[in-house]
Specification:
alpha/beta
């Protein structure tokens, strides 16, 4: 089969690799219907040290079950499934508490132990606890926009939703979203779903912020630093927002977040942090009773409800995809996202 493999910063290749096989009775093999490139994939794309053997890439997938291990009972061959970006058993205390990304029997794709999902086929560990079937949808005849929205449930939309959920966004609140990438835009959509009255999107790219307005942003602030903070404070009557959803992962975004948060408010981070040291003292969080929340999104905890929302047409998060490529065009997809000529790139392995 074909799969995307990264050998170092800026070096992604599509290669022929062995087909996956069942290794444990809890595994399933799936055939990829759609996969995509994530903003977090750009971190190694920009900074990964050169490797001789490379690492297969990708962690988002909408797929059809091809084969299941002897102990798998929740899905059967032929079903269309959403593949969360982390696998989990869905039975341990961490999963029962709703934090599947901390499952002690789970893990992540695109690691030396588990290959990535930017491939024609993939092995899914803990298939019973991980895969969620999409009822009555035939990928061969389904509308492309429906497939795109279902694909966002493997990571990007539900990561944005997790930001809003962990911030406990409630009707009538003011919310600021820091970052106009696909996760930030998804956070806007999720905040609207949860009833936020004011949603301020901090972003500089007009085509992206226009989609943010369509998703529910009431205001857009393009400026950064002191000027951006001043504009958010002006829009909120000098108070700041009850919830700030940080979808970037860099230290300046975190610092901007606590500067625009309302006293007693919450900062919810879902951008993968590219730092370890950050202010939590009197001048940042402590002095104004700010809370810090967020983390890797437990997509599996939200999937059933989100699939139902997409199938009813309540949400259409698939609009974050603005380019589709063949599997052998994945390297060009990375370039497009790295250069910001594409917001989020979807991959269709069946395209010729």
């Amino acid at each position: 089969m074909k799969a995307a493999v990264m050998y170092g910063a800026g070096d992604v290749r599509v290669e022929t690799v062995p087909d996956p096989s069942i290794l444990r009775p809890t595994d399933a093999i799936v055939r990829t219907v759609r996969t995509c490139i994530c903003g977090s994939d750009l971190h190694p794309y920009r900074g990964m040290a050169a490797q001789e053997h490379g690492q297969s890439m990708g962690h988002e997938s909408l797929a059809v079950v091809e084969e299941v291990g002897a102990s798998v009972t929740s899905v059967t061959p032929g079903q269309l499934v959403v593949v969360p970006f982390a696998f989990s058993d869905n039975t341990c205390p961490a999963c029962r508490d709703g934090f599947h990304t901390a499952c002690p029997h789970g893990g992540f794709y695109a690691t030396p132990e588990t290959n990535g999902l930017q491939a024609e086929f993939a092995r899914i560990p803990q298939a019973d606890g991980t895969l969620v079937a999409v009822p009555e949808v035939d990928p061969a005849t389904a509308d492309e926009s429906l497939l795109a929205s279902l694909l966002t449930l493997s990571d990007v939309y539900l990561t944005g939703y997790h930001a809003a959920h962990m911030a406990q966004v409630r009707p009538g609140q003011s919310v600021t979203v820091v970052g106009d990438g696909a996760v930030g835009l998804s956070a806007v959509l999720a905040a609207r779903q949860l009833g936020a009255e004011q949603i301020i999107l901090m972003g500089r790219h007009v085509t992206r912020t226009d989609l943010g307005r369509e998703f529910g942003a009431t205001d857009v602030v393009a400026e950064r630093g002191d000027e951006g903070v001043a504009q958010v404070l002006e829009l909120t009557g000098g108070l700041g927002s009850h919830a700030v959803l940080e979808a970037v992962g860099h230290l300046p975004a975190y610092e901007q977040s606590y500067r625009v948060a309302r006293t007693g408010g919450v900062i919810s981070r879902v951008g993968v942090p590219q730092y370890e040291d950050a202010g939590v003292g009197f001048g940042s969080l402590f002095g104004r009773n700010l809370r810090l929340a967020g983390g890797p999104a437990p997509v599996r905890a939200y999937l059933e409800d989100a699939i139902a929302q997409v199938l009813r047409g309540d949400i259409a998060p698939g609009k974050v995809f603005d380019r589709t490529v063949r599997l052998d065009e994945v390297p060009a997809g990375y370039i497009a996202m790295d250069e910001r000529t594409a917001l989020k790139v979807m991959v269709d392995p069946s395209a010729i």
